[in-house]
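hey can u check if this looks right to u? its 322 residues, i copy pasted from the old doc so theres a chance i mangled smth
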Amino acid sequence: MSIKREPRLGDMPGFGIGCGSLANADGDGAFRGVVELAFERGVRYFDTAALYLGGLSERRLGEALAGRSHDEFIVSTKVGRTQTHSGSSIDPSGLRSSCDYSADATMRSVETSLRQLGLDRLDIVMIHDLTRQLHGPSYDERFDEAMAGAYEALVELRNAGTVGAIGVATMDWTSCMDFALAGDFDAFMPAGQYTLLHRECGSLLDHCAATGAAFLAASPFNSGILATGAVEGAFHNMQPAGSEALARVGAMEAICARHGVPLAAAALQFPTRHAVVSSIVVGSRTAAELQRNLDLLDMPIPDELWTELDAEYAGTAAARTI
């Protein structure tokens, strides 16, 4: 692996609030409560998207941050995918959302985000959810559209200072890698792709080490299963967990239990062990949930537990299908 260069984004906060989950919080009061507790606990990074609740996430975040100096916090948002229905933004099939990766749509999206967030600049803007899983046979066409449209628009906005950094946010590290090889990006957010369950993104980590791009490890719980454990109804990457995921998580739970460590604590801390990971981004729907996550992040974990969890992962690699 190449020697790690100085990070392009400077010293990113090690922990961020994922406003995808926060978008579905119980109203404005719960949203504001999470943001207020975040500031009390020293959390200064908030990640949102045009997609989340059709823009309501950005508006709520803007209202919660109103009156604070932008020098106190970092906001990232995303362009390219928008919601076409009311209610929750969870839509893994893409049937209730639409995508437009053109330059014009990107410019409009950034203008809307600035207005809704009440900001005059955006710290990070990422191309959102351009993956093979979501776009199927049209992936290559949409990728070309994004590189000719969204990417060029974001570079222009970065050069103008309206956007501080540009990146890619998807639930597939291989599409992040496609963009990494095609353009000059400052950050990558491969959600749920570097976790206790998923560690296949080594080449993307190497790229970030070599270029100084930020690796933002979002969704360390893989949409819930690494927080709830292998329970009935557990979710894995926005879908009901399958038998293989449940079995692997059950094995991890047993290892953690032998060491007296909650699985959720190991899941939260796992990405932080890698020197290239700039931040972990975690969804918290309530202030109590945020408090619990921060406490788990501070929990001591013995080296022996990591050794056993690493061995468990390696031992199932040959037969893995998830």
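Residues 1-5 have pLDDT under 50 and may be disordered.
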